[in-house]
Design brief:
15 strands, 6-stranded mixed β-barrel, two-stranded antiparallel sheet, about 55% helix, about 425 residues, alpha+beta
Length: about 425
């Protein structure tokens, strides 16, 4: 930094110290606004990411189901000579056939996509599950345990019992925690499942908790072979669940896969669109609220700098008469904004990190769309950069207007008393 720049910085610092109380209030508002903006974004993003992990671990990134058959197979477009130029497949008017009748062939088509990590067939049906004198309606899922563990977090969701016991017991069943509680069932108890065609006896091998209330209340798992007997369904499966290398690409891959396998493919973003929109709205509203605090702090800083310009107009005129240019005066007052912004940003970042670490250790019990016993915070440097960028726009804008006014002061006007 040249001697001129350094001298300008010293002058800016001294002018700030002359109004230290007002500047400290503005600085506090900036620190407070930056810290809260980062914390609220970290909290909202944390719960969103946790929700996404729960969904991917329970329902997978893709779900292939319902074979579709267009009622109008295609539309042929002709060129000017009357020859066929292209054939365009149409989806309008498609009819859907529930389930997948040839799962092995569809699985082969699914694994043809390099982005697919794993896929597993699932047979689902509504059955009545009974324990003693209690009977509830539930949703039985027939799975092949090895392939299903590759597309879900079922092994991490077991809270009682063992997946090894389930794998070794042909009549084993895995119940959701809420369902097991309502039926007053424990590991090792006997239950009966009844569909319209069949009633069979099972033994509780394990109990799982996904954190999604609906899943834990109505879902339970049995081996594919036994499920086929209960549901009297020996050919088709209900859907195929798949995981991807990059779950964010699920919508694009779903569109491509639909036409490759001839079945409807739903991405996790499509299935959970409403919840994702809720999280986006929460992030936006919290950002707007915290930016308001920064705007108020910026307004306070603007007022303080404007007062400095009014009170120090004689000193500014002296500086101009000593050879300081308008650019020098503009730089001095802008430096005041830069000083406040730099200190405020660094302190805001430190406070945000401390608050984030403190909040994520606070116990809280949430059950519904996911399960957690503490606040979930998402650490991302992007949140820090976003807060710094917003604060920069507010603070430097607040500093520029008084700085420009100061640069326009002429020594002769101050002497004649006509400045301002």
């Amino acid at each position: 930094m040249g001697s001129g720049k350094f001298l300008n910085l010293r002058i800016a610092w001294r002018l700030l110290l002359a109004k230290r109380r007002a500047m400290l209030m503005s600085l506090g508002g900036i620190v407070f606004g930056i810290a809260l903006l980062i914390v609220t974004q970290a909290q909202t993003a944390g719960f969103e990411q946790f929700f996404i992990r729960t969904i991917l671990g329970t329902n997978g990134a893709l779900r292939i189901q319902d074979r579709f058959q267009p009622t109008v197979a295609s539309m042929v477009a002709h060129d000017e000579t009357g020859g066929a130029a292209m054939e365009i497949a149409l989806r309008e008017g498609s009819t859907y056939e529930p389930g997948i009748r040839h799962p092995a062939q569809v699985l082969e088509g699914v694994f043809a996509f390099e982005s697919v990590l794993a896929a597993a067939p699932v047979l689902r049906g509504e059955v009545a599950i009974s324990s003693g004198f209690r009977t509830m309606e539930g949703r039985l899922h027939g799975i092949e345990i090895t392939s299903y563990l590759a597309v879900s977090d079922l092994d991490q969701q077991i809270v009682r019992g063992s997946l090894l016991d389930f794998a070794q017991q042909s009549d084993g069943v895995i119940l959701g925690s809420v369902l097991a509680e309502r039926l007053q069932l424990r590991v090792g108890d006997t239950v009966f499942m009844r569909s319209r065609q069949e009633q069979r006896r099972f033994r509780v091998s394990a109990i799982f908790e996904s954190g999604i209330e609906l899943v834990d209340r109505v879902h339970f798992y049995a081996h594919m072979r036994e499920t086929r007997r209960v549901l009297n369904e020996f050919e088709r499966v209900s859907y195929i669940q798949a995981t991807l290398v990059d779950p964010d690409l699920a919508p694009m891959i779903a569109r491509q896969m639909e036409y490759a396998v001839g079945h409807h493919v739903a991405s996790w973003q499509e299935r959970e669109r409403s919840w994702l929109e809720v999280f986006r709205a929460l992030k936006l509203s919290s950002a707007i609220s915290m930016t308001t605090i920064l705007l108020i702090a910026g307004l306070g800083m603007f007022n303080t700098l404007a007062i400095i310009v009014m009170e120090r107009s004689r000193e500014i005129a002296i500086l101009r008469s000593m050879g300081y240019t308008r650019r020098d005066i503009l730089e001095i007052f802008l430096m005041q904004g830069v000083i406040v912004y730099t200190i405020g940003t660094l302190l805001g970042w430190i406070c945000a990190a401390a608050l984030t670490r403190t909040i994520e250790s606070i116990p809280i019990r949430i059950r519904g769309i996911f399960s957690t016993d503490h606040f979930v915070m998402y650490w991302s440097f992007q949140h820090y950069l976003l807060a710094a960028a917003i604060a920069g726009v507010v603070v430097l804008t607040a500093a520029f207007i008084p700085a420009r006014r100061a640069s326009l002061i002429e020594p002769g006007d101050v002497v004649r008393g006509t400045s301002g």
